[in-house]
Design goal:
CATH class of the largest domain: Alpha Beta
Family: Belongs to the glycosyl hydrolase 20 family.
Pfam families: Glyco_hydro_20 (PF00728), Glycohydro_20b2 (PF14845)
Number of strands: 16
Order of helices and strands: HEEHEHEEHEEEHEHHEEEHEHHEHEHEHH
Helix content: 25-40%
Distance between the termini: 31 Å
Radius of gyration: 25 Å
InterPro entries: Beta_hexosaminidase_sua/sub, GH, Glyco_hydro_20_cat, Hex-like_dom2, HEX_eukaryotic_N
GO biological process, one term: glycosaminoglycan metabolic process
Catalytic activity: Hydrolysis of terminal non-reducing N-acetyl-D-hexosamine residues in N-acetyl-beta-D-hexosaminides
Strand order of the largest sheet: 8-9-10-13-14-15-16
């Protein structure tokens, strides 16, 4: 009998010990002996002493070095163990005796960290798959050992290390009940991330950093910031100041160049690369800031011009729009390049009816608009490449509009229905963000207001992607199902 993937995932979790490693590693051999972690444990990195200091702050700037990356990871791991601590009472049966006698056992007194490779700048801002994120971890007797090719692998190992240890109820001892330990791990997919929409719902830098912390804890490596839309334009572009002056929800609900640089640095030091998205040509609400560059802004009925209000789209076949994009990219992309390999140009939900009310076009004929959209994408992606970044687009560009893309362009799929296989068959790299499984904002009810004649048809007012995507549903999905074998590495 073949078990469904959800059952296999649940079984794996149920059979694992209470301090199961997350995500489940490729190989793990865990014992049943108790080892305590000495609070004065000596740490070495490539044979040199590495100090552990509470509140360690990484150096500022775009020049990253392996030692500072590792030192930050060590501080977070030891702070999680010694400062925060986790007592696993909720993971045990009520009334059970699960704690070892405090201090009765061997102590880990040394942690040896060895990096076998040399990190270049491309470790911090390389394309997916170019960084070796694997690691080995062992605990036995009075010693713990970590080995990895890159500092990113060491960060993952330190996350695993902290997951092995619990805080004793006496508040003075820290132990694992799974010694000896031998773990080897490496990611199954080179791109593992979350999209955060900071245009429709503005988040503070502190909130975004908390999300980055969560990514690092789960050994994920990408944060996709959907940073502009028709709802608001929060990212400050000094060369185009009216974008935030007129486009932000409110004064102060913006991200300055210094704040974005700080955010990128914070992410790099946690093994996370930020992918910034400026959605285009649709989902653009700049008409009040720079009139004449867009069409259909806040047009009614919205269903004719966009997927959700307010509408807005950049004009096609317009040299002033191209000049605007050049100015935008020449300001923003050099500030992204030191930290990331990618820039996302959007491209989802573009509607031909926008061009029907463009005085220069007055048509929604797809055969007329497709070459103009191809020119638009070609111009944008040429500029992205000039800044040594790799473009991302949403799936509608190649699948609905038949846009030809460079082979390095990454296509993000979200609509399901076999799209991943279709994109891979075109020879493109593909990221699967299938809303049927992966959208975490579903199931909270309809947020749109409706005109009186149609409101009752939306009863009981579920949102468009209802219901909530629970973890069992997420685990039931295998992104590469239905993808021909020759394209599964795409």
């Amino acid at each position: 009998m073949m078990l469904p993937k959800t059952a296999l995932a649940v079984a794996a979790l149920a059979l694992s010990p209470v301090n199961a490693i997350w995500p489940i590693p490729i190989s793990s051999n865990l014992g049943k002996e108790t080892l305590f972690l000495d609070q004065t444990v000596k740490v070495t990195y490539n044979g040199q002493d590495l100090a552990y200091a509470v509140g360690y702050t990484h150096p500022k700037g775009t020049k990253f070095d392996s030692k500072s990356i590792v030192q930050g990871g060590l501080e977070r791991a030891f702070s999680a163990i010694f400062q925060t601590g986790l007592n696993p009472w909720m993971l045990r049966e009520r009334g059970s005796s699960f704690e070892p006698q405090a201090g009765n056992g061997s102590y880990i007194k040394t942690l040896e960290i060895r990096q076998t490779g040399n990190d270049t700048q491309k470790v911090w801002n390389g394309v997916a798959g170019s960084v070796d994120e694997s690691y080995k971890l062992s605990l036995d007797g009075d010693k713990a050992s970590i080995s990895a090719v890159s500092a990113i692998g060491i960060l993952h190992a330190l996350e695993t290390f902290q997951q092995l240890f619990y805080k004793h109820s006496d508040g003075q001892h820290y132990y694992t009940a799974s010694a000896p330990v031998e773990i080897e791990d490496a990611p199954k997919y080179p791109h593992r991330g979350i999209l955060l929409d900071v245009s429709r719902h503005w988040f503070t830098i502190k909130d975004i950093k908390r999300t980055i912390d969560g990514l690092a804890m789960n050994k994920m490596n990408r944060l996709h910031l959907h940073i502009t839309d028709t709802q608001s334009w929060p990212v400050e572009i000094p060369a185009l100041p009216e974008l935030t002056n007129k486009g932000a929800y409110s004064k102060g609900l913006t991200y300055s160049p210094d704040e974005l640089a700080d955010l990128h640095e914070y992410a790099v030091h946690r093994g996370v690369q930020i992918i910034t998205e400026i959605d285009m040509p649709g989902h653009v609400g700049i008409e009040q800031a720079y009139p004449g560059l867009s069409v259909a802004f806040n047009e009614k009925p919205y269903t004719w011009y966009c997927a959700q209000p307010p509408c807005g789209s950049l004009k096609l076949n317009d040299t002033k729009v191209e000049e605007f994009l050049d100015t935008l990219f020449d300001d923003l992309l050099p500030r992204i390049n030191p930290y990331s390999a990618y820039f996302h140009t959007g491209g989802d939900e573009y509607k031909a009816n926008n061009s029907l009310i463009d005085p220069a076009l007055k048509t929604n004929d797809l055969t007329v608009l497709q070459p103009l959209l191809q020119r638009f994408i070609d111009h944008a992606h040429k500029k992205v490449a000039e800044h040594n970044l790799v473009p991302f687009v949403w799936e509608e560009m190649p699948l609905e509009w038949n846009i030809t893309l460079s082979k390095d362009t990454v296509v993000q799929s979200w609509l399901g229905n076999g799209a991943v296989g279709q994109i891979a068959a075109k020879g493109q790299k593909v990221i699967d963000s299938n809303y049927n499984y992966y959208y975490l904002d579903c199931g909270r009810g309809q947020w749109l207001d409706f005109d009186t004649p149609v409101w009752s048809t939306y009863y009981p007012f579920n949102d468009w992607c209802n219901p909530i995507k629970n973890w069992r549903l997420i685990y039931s999905y295998e992104p590469r199902d239905g993808v021909p074998d020759e394209y599964k590495d795409n």
